[in-house]
Amino acid sequence: MVRQPSPFFGPLLLMLAFFATSPQAMAQDGPLTVLVFHRPPYYVVEKGGRFSGFLLAYTKDVLDAARIPFRFEEAPPKRILKILEDGEPAACAVGWFKTAEREAYARFSDPIFTGRPLGVAVRTELLRTLPHAPTADALLWRGMRLGLRQGFSYGDWLDAKLADHRNAADLSVAENDQILEMIARGRIDYTFIGPDEYDWLVSRHPGLRKTTRFMALGGVPPETPRHLMCSKKLPPETMARINAAIRALPPPVAQASPTGKGQPGP
User: What is the pTM of this model?
Assistant: First the structure.
């Protein structure tokens, strides 16, 4: 029986041939800095300078295919935005939403991942007081205490609703597992979160599966795609090579539960 070639094999060969003959293929002033913060399962920063997470693994594949030397570097979300806005040095960050505000100072790759629609994590005891699949508007105007991470975008549709909301706690220093703990202890009532992220967190902290629940939202548009977001100092030809690699490689698959120890950052 004749084995059929992978649908990605042809584009990948063309891409590699282009890079091999391109005079810019290996032109790089040192490795590209790829900025990362801890947000499993997308990106996981472990002790000892180890990085894992399915979007970091995919980013590594993309940059390797594009023949761009790089290194991962940890930074908090607000610091990442400041570095890219300042434009020095050339740097990228993984898995960010494209917004009009960010496009003013950053270049965005083609989409690298589109997850399942956003929902909410809520304290279990509050479930009986809420309708099935409530809308975001219904939750925002119930007077419940909402926890958000400063500097995050939740997609244009929700960012617009949150802009005028007055009952949100600024949790800029908290990781999302800590936010779930705050929900469980009654310090806040709910937060917006993706189902893949929630599944990963409760797999690591089984007690949270009893004290919190994930709820789907009604009236939610399709999930906003995630991109590599880079400073405008990154040359357009380098971004073109990144996009060629994205188009040639198979898309990433969300990893809902943690496995392995991760890989050292390059």
Answer: 0.77
